[in-house]
Design brief:
The chain is an alpha+beta fold and 151 residues long. The chain is 35% helix and 25% strand. The strands form 2 sheets. The protein has a 3-stranded antiparallel sheet, with helices on one face. The chain has a 3-stranded mixed sheet with strand order 4-6-5. The chain is elongated, with a radius of gyration of 25 Å.
């Protein structure tokens, strides 16, 4: 019997895949657990509609991510940090702090888990951090660490 899988099933196939399984397996296991539906003209149409909607949503998210990446090019997040002798920092600036400052200053919300360059910043100056905004879309944010009292 040909079925369309509604979820990933071990040793059978992935979601939205059309596979051939025995009648008993389909009727006694897949259908009662709502893991699959029988292939019919209507079920194929529904699957195609769902896949088209998913493609459109993916394209929209990618476009939004590219737009945000362009916006981030001009953003410079500045931090005034305490320094000791020879310009050494007391502590670090973490991605969490950068995330909070982006939201506060520029109203841009980016999850700290999206940062590719994760290490805390511990040196004065300009730093360029890469952020994966969407699969395949990477933006760059500029972070400036300056000593307190420096302009």
């Amino acid at each position: 019997m040909k079925v369309i899988l509604l979820a990933d099933v071990k040793k059978v196939g992935k979601k939205d895949q059309t596979v051939e399984v025995s009648d008993g397996y389909a009727v006694n296991f897949l259908f009662p657990r709502r893991l699959a539906v029988q292939v019919t003209k209507k079920s194929v149409e529904v699957l195609e509609d769902q896949q088209e909607n998913a493609r459109q949503l993916e394209a929209k998210k990618r476009a939004e991510a590219q737009e945000l990446a362009e916006k981030l090019k001009d953003v410079v997040v500045e931090f005034s940090v305490k320094t000791g002798k020879e310009g050494k920092l007391f502590g670090n600036v973490s991605t969490k702090q950068i995330e909070e400052e982006l939201l506060k200053q520029f109203k841009i919300q980016i999850d700290k888990k999206k940062f590719i360059d994760k290490g805390p910043l511990s040196v004065l100056g300009y730093h360029h951090l890469r952020i994966e905004l969407h699969k395949g879309v990477v933006g760059t944010i500029n972070v400036h660490l300056k000593a307190e009292g420096e302009k």
